[in-house]
Amino acid sequence: MVQINLVSRIAGDKNSFFDLVFIAYKLKLDGYNGFRILFIGEIESPSIYQNIIRMAGLLDVGEHIDFTKKSIPLARLPENIKDGYFLNYSVGKFIGYSGIESIANGLKAIFVNGDKSLEDDVSDYINVCRNIPDLIEFIKILINDKVNADKQIISNNLEMSSDFKLTEPDTAFLLSMMKA
Questions:
Q1: Which of the four, 23, 107, 111, 137, has the lowest number of CB atoms within 10 Å?
Q2: Residue 159, Cα to own-chain centre: how many angstroms?
Q3: HSE of 73 in the Cβ direction (CA atoms, 13 Å)?
């Protein structure tokens, strides 16, 4: 079973919830059933929550969608959730703080570019998807070959983490600039 986790409160200023219901629909339509999508976060907007539930029901994917209905700090997540994949939206090559936090906590982070104009400007890693259709194909890979995909994700996340850590010369330069 492949579990895709999205850490986000269910609120009006978020816009990725229906993407995940659509992803569940497309996977099921293509004959894939070995997956679950878990929304980890507080339900701040009951109407959005009800719309997600309604859409999942209409698309007959309700059994693949679940909610914690509360916020849970990453460090206190149960092991069965930590063993899943943590979806992060990126903007081109910019992965944002949630992606960095996922990687820093040793979670299997996957990324999907949220900016259509930057689909050709994403990092070249297996776990970085240009768009929703690429993410759907990547989830199929996870379902079919979890062991090998996990190895690549872990390796890619280690490489990615080095991209956002300061080198010793960069640290020295930054400190010298702060002293000036």
A1: 137
A2: 17
A3: 2
Domains of the chain, by residue range, sit at 2-179
User: Which residue type occupies 134?
Assistant: D
CATH architecture of 2-179: 3-Layer(aba) Sandwich (3.40)
Task: With 0.90 as the threshold, say if the pTM is over it.
Answer: no
Per-residue pLDDT for 164 more than 70? no
Look-up of token digits 């997956």 = 35
Select from 40, 132, 61 the least CA-distant residue to 90. Answer: 132
Give me the mean pLDDT over the 110-121 stretch.
88
Bridge partners (DSSP) of residue 88 are 111
111: exposed, middle or buried (C-beta count within 10 Å: 0-12, 13-18, 19+)? buried
**What burial class does residue 99 get, using C-beta atoms within 10 Å of its C-beta: 0-12 exposed, 13-18 middle, 19+ buried?**
buried
Q: Which long-range contacts (CB under 8 A, 24 or more apart) does 139-142 make?
A: 139/2, 139/4, 139/23, 139/27, 139/32, 139/35, 140/27, 140/30, 140/32, 142/2, 142/85
